[in-house]
Design goal:
mainly alpha; elongated; 78% helix
């Protein structure tokens, strides 16, 4: 798979975990599912960063989203 795809999917999964963690803590539940989502998202982001030797800067993240969306829509 492409490093950009790993980065984008990892950021999306990680971003979806944040509301799940907050919801679980508000309801006094253990955020098990959210913790798994955090681990999966972090792992995917780490694979993307390791796979690209120069790494990603903050300015490249929106470009990575655009490249992934453009690649799979066309």
């Amino acid at each position: 798979m492409d490093n950009d795809l790993f980065l984008v999917l990892g950021l999306i999964i990680f971003g979806l975990a944040v509301p799940a963690i907050i919801g679980a803590l508000v309801d006094s539940r253990v955020p098990r599912g959210a913790a798994i989502m955090v681990m999966i998202g972090s792992g995917m982001i780490a694979v993307a960063l390791i796979g690209k030797p120069s790494g990603y800067s903050f300015q490249e993240i929106p470009k990575a989203f655009t490249r992934v969306i453009g690649k799979y829509i066309n």
